[in-house]
Design a protein that fits this description.
Blueprint lengths: L15 H13 L3 H18 L9 H12 L15 H4 L21 H9 L6 H21 L6 H11 L15 H7 L4 H31 L1
Length: about 220
């Protein structure tokens, strides 16, 4: 019996063994024109095997590159695209540098620092005071996402002053939103909602079991 483990290794398994056998047969053809025509026919077959990829960019180019790879770059034809270089097939991509930014208070993120810098450009007045208060409430809400217990307004005022380098400050009579109010606006996490759903289902199941037991007791009596 012929097992796959004893057969020749598939170079690109997505196209199957028959495509690889046909590619090997094309290599054995001595006539260049005939080789080219058979290669074009084989590329059309490869396209039919993966019709979902036709909308991708350079689809035809990829098929021809795959055919060259399957033949281990030995195919010599007059193809529509130049033969790819074997060195590029094993070339590792360049690493993408990860953006490293210095975030002073991580619970607030980087975007709030940009908003604070923009708010510093506003002229003094009622509009700027309202914006600063909204920013402070957002800082308090973001802080509560990390510490659900409590946070005092003095801490938020100090953080706002430090993030704005002393350029923004709350007026003495400004009162931020209460902790309970901010927590009520924060949506419950998936784990919390999942636990509540399980408890509801468990309660419904217990109610059904109790109803079933009551019915049996009534019939016995």
């Amino acid at each position: 019996m012929d097992y796959n483990s004893t057969r020749e290794k598939l170079i690109i398994p997505e196209y199957g063994r028959n495509v690889q056998k046909m590619a090997a047969y094309i290599l054995s053809i001595e006539d260049r024109e005939k080789r080219t025509n058979l290669a074009k026919a084989l590329v059309n077959i490869m396209a039919q095997l993966h019709p979902d990829q036709r909308d991708t960019a350079d689809y035809k180019r990829k098929l021809w590159d795959h055919l060259y790879i399957i033949t281990q770059y030995k195919l010599d034809i007059d193809g529509p695209f130049p033969k790819p270089e074997p060195e590029k097939a094993v070339q590792k991509p360049q690493p993408i540098p990860y953006p490293q930014e210095n975030i002073k208070f991580r619970p607030y993120g980087k975007n709030i620092a940009r908003i604070i810098d923009k708010a510093c450009e506003f002229e003094d007045g009622a509009e700027k005071d309202a914006l600063v208060k909204n920013i402070a409430n957002h800082l308090k809400k973001s802080y509560l996402n990390w510490n659900r217990d409590s946070v005092n307004d003095e801490l938020i005022t100090d953080h706002l002053k430090e993030l704005s380098h002393g350029r923004l400050k709350l007026s003495d009579d400004t009162r931020l939103a209460h902790t309970n109010e901010l927590l009520a606006r924060t949506p419950a996490t998936s784990s919390t909602s999942g636990s509540q759903s399980k408890r509801r289902k468990f309660g419904q199941k217990n109610d059904k079991n109790a109803h079933y037991r009551d019915s049996r007791n009534r019939k016995k009596n």
